[in-house]
Amino acid sequence: MSVTSVEPRSTPAPTGSRLELAGVSRWYGNVVAVNDVSMSLGPGVTGLLGPNGAGKTTLLHMMAGFLAPSRGAVTLDGAPTWRNPEVYRRLGLVSEREAVHTFLTAYEFVLASARLHRLPEPAEAARRAIALVELEGAQSRRIGTYSKGMRQRARVAAALVHDPQVLLLDEPFNGMDPRQRLHMMDLLHRLGGAGRTILFSSHILEEVEQLSGTVQVMVAGRLAASGDFRTIRRLMTNRPHVFAVRSTDDRALAVALMAEPSVTGVELGQAGLTVRVSDYGAFTRALPKIAPARGIRVRQLVPEDESLESVFSYLVEA
Amino acid sequence: MSTVSWITARGLLGRRRFLLLFPLPVLLVLLAVLSRALGVDPSDWGPSVLVGLGLAVVLPVIALIVGTGVLGAEIDDGTVVHILTKPLPRWQIVLPKLAVAAGVTAVTVAVPLYVAGVLASSVRVGLALAAAASIGAVAYCAFFLALSLVTRRPVLLGLVYVLIWEGLLGNFVSGTKVLSIQQYVIALADRFAPTELLATDVSVPVAAVMSTLIAVGFTALAVDRLRSFSVAGETS
Lengths: 318, 236
Hints:
Chain A is α/β, with parallel strands linked by helices. Chain A contains 10 helices and 15 strands. Chain A has 2 domains: about 230 residues, Rossmann fold; about 70 residues, Alpha-Beta Plaits.
């Protein structure tokens, strides 16, 4: 399994914190949970993607200082995260486990977080964090009475109360309804845009696809790929790409496309053509020339397997 | 009151297992009142109620419930992560929790022991028992709090210590008494108010030094263990 690395689309701002993993491994007895992972996370939203059991949570726990790497180092702006509570001035964590002090109200819970951070104006910070996750209406109710999504938002508010440079979230969208999900995505987007380093893990491809162009893909404890997921897909040139093409004359276009060396197969269906391509670049350059030369207008050209799901299944098969 | 102690107290007093604390102290007072009311000679019921029940069972069991609960319950349900993701030196988490645990244990145990001591002998014996039990509460709680960080079965191990080591071996192998918080408490109470109701082989200096060592040593151990606190991974 090779690691494909490409630059993220947006260059990180000079300010902001950087979380570095250098050759990090973690094993439990004979079981290797995380195997020689190196990555550097800067400002913006990054998705940590992988199937259940891939080692995402173990990796997040090491990033958050809740697990010692068996080998390698995890540092936040140069300081180790393990056995170093000072990192929590710049780091917030929303763990996957739905653990909250159910006997507190959301306001008390977030306020306690602000106090533990020794913020100068804890009440103000707590109100701001609760407003950020839109929980003002329920803030005086005990968390025990909340739905799963509301608890999740209360925990995000507590993790954000000190306005951390780095926010780590383990499966943050679990248990959220679509509206809460959209709101949380919007919030993370804004935080990422404001120069915060946001890393969230997920095994659901659409979440990562909608929220971040930059992904770190974990498969079986290893970092299988990192970077912009569309670019990763394109770099994997030995994989066939599939396009859905609709035109004014699908049959004529199919004949013309079969003559192209970059095309490996064409299927004529009711909804248009399904074109299998071995060389992404050559095909996308050739099509605009082939069609007009035969008087055919291309109405639609959609890469069918550009979803993370297909990127991901290729990586798992590799 | 620090935020850590506030959350700890709310968590401890807000949970149903807090109700477990009451039956034993109530039983202690009831037995003392009953014995006194029936006119039984204190030398007959004093040692078994004050030491056999009060110091050998009520104090360590209450300390076990509370001491393993202040941090252990948060570790069990995962809420400990909220306190640990704060830029606090770990002693600032352990000490307030130990203070709450020792305080709750001391109040819960000292009051019935005082009442029983007064009924069995005098106000002075009652006060001595209450004071010694409070010192014992600190040592026990430090020990049980540290246990909740070094093992996933702190209550079981704590019970083994209280029942097997202190309760059983203490009666047959006198050497084990040197490592028995219960014996320190008896020695200290007897020093505060000498009475024939309390008897132990452990000397007062040994009791004082060992109580301090246990309290300080296990607190330091707890702080160090909390510094290296690991959240169990999905594969473990």
